[in-house]
Amino acid sequence: MERMLLAEIGVGFWIFLGVIVLIALTLIGMYNSLVGLRQQVKNAWSQIDVQLKRRYDLIPNLVETVKGYMKYEQETLEKVMQARAQALSASGVRQQAEAENALTRALGGLFALAENYPELKASQTMAQLQEELRSTENKIAFARQFYNDSVMQYNTKLQQFPTNIIAGMFGFKPEELFEIEEPEAREPVQVKFT
């Protein structure tokens, strides 16, 4: 009788221990998935940053190229360089998105004016810069989409039960989407002369 009671206590202990281990493994899995998603968001942001840096590096060459042809358009060129400087100094997702909107508008104005200069349109340097800028704009759009997809997955996980409990316990915070508020800024800068 005493032996059966000890055996029942032993089975109960192992079941209790198994449940505790299962709960601990589940919590560890949820925590690790949150860490993985947060790292994915950071990686996606760094991809945007790389492409934006490439765009910023192209703009001074573009301005220098058009400067010789567009002698009476200094105000437009200054707006582009000012918008580039603001974008370079922007920090945080919201401020970066606003600065990118301003830069896209400034570049759009520059390319609209460039349409009036046939020699500029025929320039080989200008054609190369247009192609590089077009390629960079496409990469920025792709990187922006990847970033927003990563943020959506991460933020969804933060709000789902029971992961929201783990997120609250360890201080995981939602990330901001890279949103473009102006409809015309949603399209890549048009760099094609017709």
List keywords for this structure.
194 residues; 79% helix
If you had to describe this structure to a student in words, what would you say it looks like?
The chain has 194 residues and is mostly helical. The chain is built from six helices and no strands.
Helix content: over 70%
What sequence of helices (H) and strands (E) makes up the elements? HHHHHH
State the end-to-end CA separation.
97 Å
Rg, Cα atoms, Å: 27 Å
- The outline comes out as rod-shaped
Structural class: mainly alpha
Outline the low-pLDDT stretches: none
Number of H- or I-type helical stretches = 6
Query: Which percent band covers the strand fraction?
Result: under 5%
Instruction: Output mean pLDDT.
Output: 87
Number of strands: 0
Largest sheet, in brief, is: none
Strand and helix layout:
Blueprint: H1 2-67, H2 74-89, H3 93-114, H4 118-122, H5 124-159, H6 163-170
Quick synopsis:
By secondary structure, this protein is mainly α. Helices cover 79% and strands 0% of the residues.
